[in-house]
Write a structure and sequence with these properties.
The protein is of the alpha/beta class. It has 2 domains: about 130 residues, Aspartate Aminotransferase, domain 1; about 240 residues, Aspartate Aminotransferase, domain 2, CATH 3.40.640. About 40% of the residues lie in helices and about 15% in strands. It has 13 helices and 14 strands. The strands form 4 sheets. A 7-stranded mixed β-sheet has the order 2-10-9-8-5-3-4, with helices on both faces. The protein has a 3-stranded antiparallel β-sheet with strand order 11-14-13, with no helix packed on it. Strands 1-12 form a two-stranded parallel ribbon. A hairpin with a 7-residue loop joins strand 13 and strand 14. Helix 2 packs across helix 9. It is globular and about 60 Å long. Bound molecules: pyridoxal-5'-phosphate. The site of pyridoxal-5'-phosphate (PLP) has 13 residues, from helix 3.
């Protein structure tokens, strides 16, 4: 996008992080952390209030019914807080899983003692609206459905709109892990009905790690009183304290909040969710085209590729090893990410953070140079990987 402000590349000799968060942040975001704030002080309370308002507004159409509850910890703390606070003790959840984060949501429910069932599609097949409708029709005990917007373990963009429609038609409540999508992919509650979503500071808003946040219908938060299994991860209690005092209940991640506010302002200046999503989509398109031109294959067909992160099969060439490839990429200024598939060897390249199409072209050049250094002449994947991928075509 030529009308986007230029990204702010790392100035300290750091590599680019082609990872799904923590990711490459701007110098201004890092610089915002160079002072201390008192957690009780009015200045910090105003920062918390501005952050909550900006996040709710970012939801778009229908945001008026929502409130924002920040939560200390990594993103998974907020997922666990959402599940434990909104699924009542006598409720039952249906988890739509197609990767590590769906499985983690199910694991959290098991830990906190909530009844649940999973619709598990394996490594990367998308849960579809009709099968969700069928599961809900067959099990009237299910009160809540848990969906992952972008399943970061494969990079698949799950069809949230048709899932939300099926859940609403069945009169159940949808909870969304939008961790790696919020801020880059719109999810306006007026069009896609859900009760709550979670995301965190260090993904598409491009802040530093330290906290997550729940964006939930105010009425759902009010109704959640007394549900939580945990003192610290009680969304209602955190919200009630924040509404009453403007403060976080326990020590807030002050510096991470300051950095995040800077990131939120940059997000708005870039043009909000649409512009952020467009930059990431262009990053993906340039990266995927460059990698395919070298001979790599993506796990997913184009229709399921998210603008967040893309999974590539490892080359079958015996000269290739992931560890040597990783080191070669790092030496050339890029931190990459291992794959998470059970069937085929793979690796992932993220395209979120302070990176643009130019950085993607540099990354592809670094891949080419690394392959040459390793003596890999053909990046094509093994036949078994392509056979596995063909199953996606059948099932989707
Ligand atoms: C990053 C991420 C999380 C949270 O991971 P943490 O390591 O706890 O921050 C949860 N779900 C998805 C889909 C994610 O991408």
């Amino acid at each position: 996008m030529s009308d986007c402000p230029a990204i702010d590349p790392p100035r300290l000799g750091e590599p680019y992080l082609l990872t799904p968060g923590p990711l490459t942040t701007s110098y201004a975001v890092k610089q915002a952390m160079l002072r201390d704030w008192g957690s009780w002080d009015g200045d910090f309370r105003a920062m918390t209030a501005e952050m909550r308002e900006r996040l709710v507004a970012m939801l778009g159409d229908g945001h008026e019914a929502f409130t924002c509850v920040p939560m200390q910890g990594s993103g998974s703390f907020s997922v666990e807080a959402m599940l434990g606070s909104f699924v009542p003790r006598d409720g039952k959840a249906l988890v739509l899983a197609n990767g590590a984060y769906g499985q983690r949501a199910a694991q959290a429910l098991a830990y906190i003692g909530r009844a649940f069932d999973a619709l598990d599609k394996g490594d990367y097949l998308p849960p579809r609206g009709p099968e969700v409708a069928a599961r809900l029709a067959a099990d009237p005990a299910v009160t809540h459905v848990v969906a992952i917007h972008c399943e970061t373990s494969s990079g698949i963009l799950n069809p949230l709109a048709e899932i939300a429609e099926a859940v609403a038609a069945a009169g159940r409540t949808l909870l969304v892990d939008a961790m790696s999508a919020f801020g880059a992919l719109p999810l306006p509650p007026a069009e896609v009905p859900y009760a709550a979503l979670v995301s965190s500071a260090n993904k598409c808003i491009e802040g530093v790690p330290g906290f997550g946040f729940v964006l939930a219908r105010r009425e759902a938060v009010v109704a959640a009183e007394g549900n939580a299994h945990s003192l610290c991860l009680d969304v209602h209690a955190q919200w009630a304290a924040m509404e009453a005092t403007g403060q976080w209940r326990y020590t807030p991640p002050t510096h991470a909040v300051a950095a995040f506010l800077e990131a939120l302002r940059a997000h708005a200046a870039e043009g909000g969710v649409a512009a952020r999503g467009a930059r990431y989509a262009e990053n993906r398109d340039v990266l995927v085209a460059g990698m395919r031109a070298l001979g790599f294959e993506t796990l997913l067909a184009d229709r399921w590729l998210s603008p967040i992160i893309t999974t590539f099969f490892c080359p079958a060439d015996p000269a290739f090893s992931f560890d040597a490839f990783y080191d070669g990429m790092k030496a050339r200024g890029f931190i990459i990410y291992p794959g998470k598939l059970t069937v085929a060897e793979s690796f992932r390249l993220g395209h979120i953070g302070q990176v643009d199409a130019d950085v993607m072209r540099q990354a592809v050049a670094a891949v080419e140079a690394t392959l040459r250094a390793l003596g890999v002449t053909d990046p094509a994947p093994p036949a078994a990987a392509l056979a596995e991928r063909a199953k996606l075509g059948e099932a989707a």
